[in-house]
Every structure is written in C-alpha cells, then in structure tokens.
Amino acid sequence: MEEVNKTASGEEPRKLNFLEEIIEEDLREGKYDSIMTRFPPEPNGYLHLGHAKSICLNFGLAQKYGGKTNLRYDDTNPVKEDVEYVDSIKEDIKWLGFQWDKELYASDYFDQLYEWAEKLINMGLAYVDDQDIDQIRQNRGTVDVPGTPSPYRDRSIEENLRLFREMRDGKYEDGAKVLRAKIDMAHPNPMFRDPILYRIKHVSHHRTGDKWCIYPMYDYTHGQCDSIEHITHSICTLEFDVHRPLYDWFIQTLGIFPSHQYEFARLNLTYTLMSKRKLLELVQKGLVSGWDDPRMPTLCGARRRGYTPQALRMFCDRIGVSKREQLIDLQLLEWCVRQDLNARSNRYMVVQDPLKVTITNWEKGKVEYFDCPLNPADPEGATRRVPFTGELYIERADFMEEPPKKFFRLRPGGEVRLKYTYIIKCEEVVKDEQGNITELRCTYDPSTAPGAGDWRSVKGTLHWVSVPDAVKVTLRNYDRLFTLSDMSQVPPGMDYKEFLNPDSLIVGEGWAEPALLEDKSALAVQFERTGYYVLDKDSTPESPVFNKTTSLKDSYKPE
Ligand code: ATP
Ligand code: MG
Asked: What does the pLDDT read at residue 16?
C-alpha cells in the first residue's frame, strides 16, 4: 500500500514520520483499539515554541488516528509550580487550536502512587534509605564502576513500611530519608542503581495543599500516570531515552496497563533559547518586558508578536519529527508567518519616515475617497476608504535627487503612481537653509485615476498617506533577541546574556491611513511595502502601538 499523507496546510503529500509508522503498525496489528496521547507540561513557566512542536505532535497524531489527548500537568515538584502557569498553558494550547480530552494532574494520582510504593516495599523491591542525596549520588558509581550498596539496603519489609509511613506522616525533616527502588547497584544502566522514588519536602502543593510532605520523583511518576490514563503512545524528547527501561520496569513490575514511551528530537531554533529557567531569568531581571514580550520564544510572546496559530502549525508540520537533534533556521518560522499573513491579512498604508508632498494642481481643501481592497487576494472582498488630498506624505527613501540607474521611485521631473490613485510628477524640490529636502512640489494627472479608461503605467508605485487624515502610531520594531546563531554554543566562561541583541527593539513612529484603527480582523495587518504589524495591548485610543511581526520579504526560501 502506498502510504502518503497530506500536510496540515494541504500542500504536497509527505512520507509518514516514524511515529506515524509505529502507530499505523500498532493499529494494524490490533495492539490497541484506539490511540491515546498526552501532553505533560510542568507548570513552572510559560509554553514556548518547543512545546508547540510537542503539542502539534501529540494532539496531531491523536486527531489523525481518531484518538484522544489528555492534558496532564506534571506537578510533582511543588517548589517551582504556580497556578498562573497552569492557566496560561491551557490558554496557549487552545490558541494553537487544540482541545484536550481530560485535564489531569500527576498530583491526582498521589494516593495511587503511594499505594504502589507500599506494594513495591511489600514485594521487597523498595527500601527507605537514610543517606543524604550527595551520598546517594557518590555511591551510584559510574558507567564503568558499579555502585556501592547503601548500608540501609537490607532493611526488613516491616521496618521499611513503618519508616515510609512515618515519612508520609511528617516525622522527618526534608532530606532525612528517601524511598528507593531496590533493583541492582551494579546495573550497566545507572538509572537502575536503586533510583529514588520519593523525597521529603515540607512544602504546600498548589493542588494538594499540605496533605503530602513526600513527593514522588519524575521516573516513578510519569509512566504510571501514563498507564492509569491508558496512554498508548507516550511521546517525549530524546534525553528521556535512557529513562525508558526504567519506565518499562515500573509498569511491568506493577503489572499495569502497558503504555510505551517514544522519543523524538526537541526543537532547537537559531538565535533562540528555550529553557524555561533562562526565560524566567530574562523576565525576572527585566531584560524583557515579561513572558509575553514579543521577542520571547513563548507562545504568548509569539501571539503578541502577531504570529498566528496557523503559521505555527504549518511550521511544526514542515520541520517534521526525527530522532536526530538539529538546529532549525528561525527564518523558516518567519517564512511560515509570512505565508499565512500574506494570504489573510488586511492591507494599510503607513509612512514611517515622512517626506511631505504638495500637489500643486489639487483644488484646495478637496478630499477624494478611494475604496481600496483590504486584501488583494480577494479583490471582490471588503474595502477600506482611503482619503486623498493635496497634502501627502511619502517615505523619504522613495525619493532621490540624484538616483542611480534602476531607481524606479520618485526623482526630480520623474513620475510614480501613488498606490490606488493617480500618477504624480515631481516638479520642484524644496530645501531648508542646510540643504535638507523638506518638501516635494508635484502635480497629479487627473486622467490616471483608477478605472479611468487609459490607465497609464509607470514603473514605480509608492505608498502614501494624506497628511490631514493621517493618524500617528508608535511602532515597536523587533529583531531577534540574541546575536548568536546557535545558543547551545555559548563559549565556556561566557554568559548567554552577553549575547542579547542590543537592537532587538527599536521604537519608531508612523503616520497611518485612518482605516487602520478601525481594523476588525484581530490579525496582524500588512503595512504595504514595509512589513506585518499587529496592534499591541499597550495601545490607547489616543496612542496606538503596533508591534512588528515580521518584514514583508526575505531572500530566504525553504527547501
Ligand atoms: P524546558 O527545558 O524548557 O524547561 P521541559 O522539557 O522541562 O522544558 P516540560 O514542561 O516538562 O518542559 O515539557 C512538556 C513537554 O514538552 C515534554 O514532553 C517535553 O519533552 C516537551 N518539550 C519541551 N521542550 C521541547 C522542545 N524544545 N522541543 C520539543 N518538545 C519539547
Ligand atoms: Mg520537564
């Protein structure tokens, strides 16, 4: 059977990725009736673009094969977790366009996990260790040297049960004891050298409050939670492949539903950092304006930047899934954003560095309105009204007094079309005493109005605004946050913050056609000939602020 597959954007067929191959084989063999995946964020920060890859994968696979996806908060470490993060994670997943089946928390299973821990003790497969964390680490050995068994390893089942219950009941200080699995201190995989199952932490939990003062470790938790929820394919990033045998060991030893773990390569992007710990540091040190600063790689930052869920899904689809780490070009993401916005966004004219143009043969005080398409891809669609008067702004860079060859914009004695309207001719250049150009005096040709029979053509078309109608807007022009392409290569002795781009935000201003402020699309818009911009939440009616989403064009082409 020829196995091809449509991409999310419906473009070309692509080959199945390795996870799809596994799932199709499992379904063919009748291993499962239907598939179940989960997305397991730790609520200790905001979601970032790497999480988007994991979300698109987990939700996307379930959707494709008629299964479901749970949202499960991996909330076993009460110290770093926060309700703020829990809420933001839900908002971001919904924004990306996915809906989970059940909203669950690893902490929902604390009773069950505890019960299984007693079961392991009763099976002679777990013991309470009084060594501290450092001793345990030292005694774990290395790849070549077997570990040293703990002096507490051979406690009786009764003693272990009593001590473990006392740990639970709050009889001991943090760090005084741990519960460990009793597997093999000489095992070639160090993960099996009596891993820690529970540690004592007298800390309130955001959901269970003060009910518990012992908390389960990741390895003891994740697989069992998957199993309880009957997750068929538990998909995680590559660094967990060394944990997989232990994941399987707990499930087999406890004899519970056989979930399986599969690993894929995490997303790394050029000029981007995605560690929550470092992103938190940027926020706490005020190096960015918050988690949703438009320069941040967080999903709330991307949203505020004007990136769309469609573009992010297209991006995740294009990068695919593999088992090999690679660095993805940030320009591919920007390319996807442009693809989506080019097709859907409304157009407006905004002049950023104005040069005044006076139309000398325009009747004083006259205003003419042009109905212009909001999106050229839909010429029959909605329009906006653009006022034209005898006092205009064009971009300073669109005029040159002594232009080189192939400069098709305005020059002394030259003609250009002002977009959607007339052809104008530059008759006179006005300068101040220092010789700076302050104004162009031009004439317009009334016979060149759109729709007039002989639409003359000229090479240059410029965007413009009518001065009396223009609205002043603030523009936040963003660039990449870091200057180092591969942020995993920060040289030893240097700090990643030394690579912050000092020009990642440049605030400017613009003069916009009035319709811009009436835009109802809730999408980034295209400032014609310059870039995509999106209205920021810091705007007030008197002072609108726009964030630059991305430039209009780039030489970049995806493979
Ligand atoms: P970070 O290192 O940024 O703190 P994390 O892995 O600790 O990330 P979690 O909240 O535990 O963050 O991640 C939830 C899910 O998202 C996990 O399954 C994890 O493997 C996946 N994930 C995290 N970062 C990436 C990434 N860069 N690319 C793909 N998946 C990722
Ligand atoms: Mg994690």
From this structure: 93
Strand segments, DSSP code E, in 396-517 are: 415-418, 423-431, 437-445, 461-462, 465-466, 471-478, 505-512
Task: Name the residue among 35, 407, 492 with its Cα closest to residue 233.
Answer: 35
Residue 397 has pLDDT above 80, yes or no: yes
Q: How far apart are the CA of 218 and the centre of ligand 2, in A?
A: 9
The reply to whether ligand 1 has any atom less than 6 angstroms from the CB of 178 is no
Please count the residues of the chain: 559
Q: What is the pLDDT of residue 11?
A: 56
Q: How far is CA 173 from CA 137, 204, 478, in A?
A: 19, 15, 50
Burial of residue 500 (number of CB atoms within 10 Å: 0-12, 13-18, 19+): middle
Task: Assess contact for 94 and 303: CB atoms under 8 A.
Answer: no
Cα separation, 547 vs 474, in Å, equals: 9
Give the H or E element holding residue 89: helix 83-96
Ligand index nearest the alpha carbon of residue 92: 1
What pLDDT does 4 receive? 45
Mutate to test the pocket of ligand 1, among 77, 237, 239 (most ligand atoms within 8 A of CB): 237
How many A from CA of 215 to the centre of ligand 1?
21
Task: Check whether 262 has a pLDDT greater than 60.
Answer: yes
**Whether the Cβ atoms of residue 163 and residue 155 lie closer than 8 Å to each other:** yes
Q: Which ligand is nearest to the CA of 488?
A: 1
Please check the confidence at residue 1 and state whether its pLDDT lies above 80.
Answer: no
Displacement of CA 373 from its chain's centroid (Å): 32
pTM: 0.93
Looking at 139-274, list the stretches that DSSP marks H as alpha helix, in order from N- to C-terminal side. Answer: 157-168, 218-228, 244-254
Taking CA atoms, 57 is separated from 40, 236, 274, in Å, by: 12, 10, 18
Instruction: Indicate the angle between helix axes 83-96 and 309-319, nearest 10 degrees.
Output: 80
CA 534 to chain centre: 17
